[in-house]
User: What shape does this take?
Amino acid sequence: MIPQKSSMGFTPPDIDIFRTLFKGREDVFAVRWERGNKSGYMPAYSYDPYHYRLHKVSGGSFQSYQHKTYLPLSDTEIAKHLDGRQQIGVYPLLQDNTSWFLVADFDKADWLQEALKFLKACTAISNTMLFSRPWIRKRQAIFGIRIKIGTCL
Assistant: This one.
């Protein structure tokens, strides 16, 4: 259960908007990691750190560690993301091989024109669209669609 208002002022309706725009798997989410010059996302897990340490001392790796389970995407985790305390990723591909939203990269010099064409095509099948330029990549666009992709393609 999350508080009525998070530390940055996000409320449960804000979390509902996030869940509507970025509807994905509920049983797992990703967390961003950084190590040296490398970074990426990995599934968020629950595990016993003491038991894992014993596994690691005996030559095991986290990949081979069997006693971990996915953390589900909760309102608390979304609130921490919105507050800036962690960066999470949503797994958009559902277990039935459909998705509720698309992320597209446009890498050419005419990326904006191509993104607008894509937006127009998507708008033809949905009346709710979101176009965003995230800070991570300058030519990436996120399109939120309120229909289940895979059922219409």
Summary: The first helix runs from residue 12 to 21.
